[in-house]
Amino acid sequence: MRSVFRHTGVIWRMTAHCVVFAGLIAMVIGCDTIGGVFDEDGPGGTPITEGFFGGVVGDDPRAVLAARTILTNGGTAADAAAAYYFMSAVSLPATSSLGAGGVCMVYDKGQNQTQLLDFRNGMAGGSMAPGARAIGLPGAVRGMFAIYARFGKLSWTDVVAPAERAARFGIPVSRGLASDLALVGAALMEDPAARAIFGGPDGQVLGEGDTLVQRDLAGMLSYIRTRGAGDFYSGLSATQFIEGVAATGVTLPSANLRGFVPHWREPALRALPWTILGSESETKVPGAGFDGGPIMLWSWDMLDGGARLAQATAPDLRAHLIAEVALRDAVARGLMADELPEPDDGAALMATYDPAAATPLSMLPGPPVVLQESPAASGFVVVDAYGNAVSCATTMNNLFGNGRVAPGTGIVLAAEPGPVRGNGMSLLPVLTVNENAREVIFAGVVTGGVLSGPLMASVVSDILANDVSLADAIAAPRVFHPGDPDVVVVEPEVGDAVVQGLLARGHDVRTVPELGLIQGISCPDGLRNGSGSCRFVTDPRGFGLGVGG
């Protein structure tokens, strides 16, 4: 099982690691207006907001409910996003521990501005004892605080305290975490600190419904709650974390931890025909330095804004088209060199596309380039009643990071960022905003590694060009081509007829259990003025939860 803790960029070989495509429950709950009650966990016992309070979708049900409580008590999307993250650090530490890194896209209605915050894991540096496993610098604690500090409204205590209580007094193991633990089982139990947290009295990993108590983690959250996020990087909790890391054989220089800074960046954008009040909206994605965002734009251009999908009415032709676009994405990855594509670039790549046959690699303008990155990640999206939105993806750079827990802290350590093209490059939060109307139209996030760009592009294309609902677009069976190896991977639900159609076109086809996870919120009439149109959708492949009202 040691391979669980190694990076991989080849999706179809991940069938033994299918939990990276799982981790969440498909429970989509429609808008339910709640008012006139008081929440014991609310700030000062304030009444829950009457009418529309916003909504949240995410991989972890307990974290979704924590974020929902914040929203119903008048918090902003930034407050709720921070609350979601800290609770997920307790309830879904396989991808979201305090050691995680990530990226968020944030729209602030007051400033009418969309920004991207990059807090992916940094290189830890320092020395390692023989047999020790390298780690990544934790970024999410400081990253989520940066979003809260700029856009939050409630007190920091309100945001962190629910997670601290959950860690101290215990919570039932969710189905998603149980699935993750069952996958890595024996490998994770090799670490005494991990075994003390995730192991049961019978020596096996905890199962669904078992009680998970994390008192050391509660202590770290207490420091963060009372002393601020900065303490985790340069205070008492930083000292405790460095000592815990040292116990795993890694010397973490305090200056490296103290010097970690998240970065606000301008996102890349593309005007899409997502109209409201007669004007088009802009879709914002991570730009230079990321893979998922630029590849999504390549895919969108090659799909001709969804027009090609609309014309591919036969299921096997549609699958062939999506596979051919994904193959060309792998070629585009080697061509773009941090430059964002123009629509003509996508058209040029599709010049060799043949609806009746697979394209030989020799006919492409370059060799496919595979993103060497673990697909294990977690995503969530929050919108609030004020018109703001936050979409985030977090990662440990592998399932359960490097497979070690820092003794005395309860923190699952992130794996060292991957070589060359690793470190969360595929993470893909997306926001579609009409700045003329100051309205959020769509907010989504996709996880699953190298497939994130073409997957999100096909979902958005279906919604815009084919008038498909968000729920149906997310649930549709998926097809992907990694580029290298030259093979098309499909989900079982595509059916035999589609597989035969792909084989007849000359493709080599493999079936895998699942391909990626998407969480999304769609408000076709606008988040603020058309909240009744909002739909909150979690991917039916997972164990997530969506609530809104």
What does this molecule look like?
Helix 12 crosses helix 16 (about 450-465). The protein contains 18 helices and 23 strands. It is α+β, with helices and mostly antiparallel strands and about 550 residues long.
Q: How many helices in DSSP terms?
A: 18
Q: State the end-to-end distance.
A: 43 Å
- Report the strand count: 23
Given as residue ranges, the uncertain stretches (5+ residues, pLDDT < 50) are 1-49
Placed side by side, the strands forming the largest sheet appear as 1-23-2-12-13-3-4-9
* Whole-angstrom Rg: 22 Å
Mean pLDDT: 89
Q: Assess the beta-strand content as a share of residues.
A: 15-25%
Helix content: 25-40%
How is the main sheet built?
A: 8 strands, mixed
Shape: globular
User: What class would the helix/strand composition place it in?
Assistant: alpha+beta
Structure, briefly:
By secondary structure, the protein is an alpha+beta fold. It starts with 26 loop residues before the first strand and ends with a strand.
Break the fold down into its secondary structure elements and pairings.
Blueprint: E1 27-31, E2 54-58, H1 61-72, H2 77-91, H3 93-96, E3 101-108, E4 113-119, E5 122-123, E6 136-137, H4 140-151, H5 156-169, E7 171-172, H6 175-189, H7 192-198, E8 211-212, H8 215-227, H9 231-234, H10 236-246, H11 254-258, E9 263-265, E10 268-276, E11 279-285, H12 292-302, H13 307-311, H14 315-336, H15 343-349, E12 378-384, E13 389-395, E14 405-406, E15 411-412, E16 428-434, E17 439-447, H16 452-465, H17 470-475, E18 479-480, E19 488-490, H18 496-504, E20 509-511, E21 517-522, E22 535-538, E23 545-548
Parallel strand pairs: 1-23, 19-20
Antiparallel strand pairs: 2-12, 2-23, 3-4, 3-13, 4-9, 5-6, 7-8, 10-11, 11-16, 12-13, 14-15, 16-17, 17-21, 18-19, 21-22
Helix pairs in contact: 1-2, 2-4, 2-5, 5-8, 12-14, 12-15, 12-16, 14-18
